[in-house]
Amino acid sequence: MMLPVALTCGEPAGIGPEIAAKAWDALRTRLPFFYIGDPRHLPSGTPVTEIADPMEALTACKRALPVLTHRFPEHAHPGVPSPANAAQVIEVIARGVDLVQRGSAAALCTAPIHKKALKDGAGFAYPGHTEYLAALAGVERVVMMLACEGLRVVPATIHIALSDVPRALTPDLLRDTLRLTHRALQSDFGIEAPRIAVAGLNPHAGEGGAMGREEIELITPVLEALRAEGLDLKGPASADTMFHAAARRNYDVAVAMYHDQALIPIKTIGFDTGVNVTLGLPFIRTSPDHGTAFDIAGQGQADPTSLIEALLQADRMARFRAQADA
């Protein structure tokens, strides 16, 4: 029997509670999951069943949204995060990690947080969700993947200025990113022999050194060493030719050198359906590929599609990992 997926509440003043309720309505007979948070923050009229154990979600999810209650000091006011609630947002994430690590949930799906609200209200010391999860798991290196139907992308460097990318892009970082990606595609996506396309850093992949030498001096040596280990790596390739439909059929994931090089194509192809996946953790973690959307919170306008896809992706990955570990 598969375990339910744990969904953390995220920032309760954002769209998280609304899309959680909508996701339950869409998935109640397809995928059991439970919400960790304060039931008072969910939209009025949401059918709720408070549970004491995650396994109760397997049956409760068909009739109501199962909630593993975590009380917050204040009600949520849509669009206006409360500093008094910040510590509980952080605690809910830690509670979700503990549940998946203890084997009480199949995977962790996280609703969006607002980093400034957590820093202002509780001194949150991490750049984001991913770094906090890595710290909780005791993992030094993790990889961010964005996935939608027809495309998976991994940026080697993430939330840094473009001017800082050449310094941050080291052989160790690129090597670790490619190895973690390769292993995750095998264990969590069921791809026995992953095909990985690797972008160059510069226009036209440097054009033989005329537009930069990172491809010659850094990227190619790393790829050659990893090919000797048995990884199927293509590139470094010119990023502007990697993402049309015919090219995408030739690889299972594209590894880019910086944030926008990876995220522009996936948000063009699957803006509403993209899922954020963290690779390299000892548990499965997914998240919708959007933020708290304070501007529309509480108005009934939020689209739950990305969260629905994130929950389904978490379940699929957990099943593949269970098979790989069997």
TrEMBL record:
Record note on quaternary structure: Homodimer.
List of residues binding substrate: H129, T130, K267, N276, R285
Annotated protein name in UniProt: 4-hydroxythreonine-4-phosphate dehydrogenase
Cofactor: Zn(2+); Mg(2+); Co(2+)
Catalytic reaction annotation: 4-(phosphooxy)-L-threonine + NAD(+) = 3-amino-2-oxopropyl phosphate + CO2 + NADH
HAMAP family per the UniProt record, alphabetical: PdxA
Additional free-text comment from the UniProt record: The active site is located at the dimer interface.
The keyword Iron is annotated on this UniProt entry: no
Enzyme class: oxidoreductase
Function: Catalyzes the NAD(P)-dependent oxidation of 4-(phosphooxy)-L-threonine (HTP) into 2-amino-3-oxo-4-(phosphooxy)butyric acid which spontaneously decarboxylates to form 3-amino-2-oxopropyl phosphate (AHAP).
Organism: Meridianimarinicoccus marinus
Keywords linked to the UniProt accession: Cobalt, Cytoplasm, Magnesium, Metal-binding, NAD, NADP, Oxidoreductase, Pyridoxine biosynthesis, Zinc
InterPro entries: PdxA (IPR037510), PdxA_fam (IPR005255)
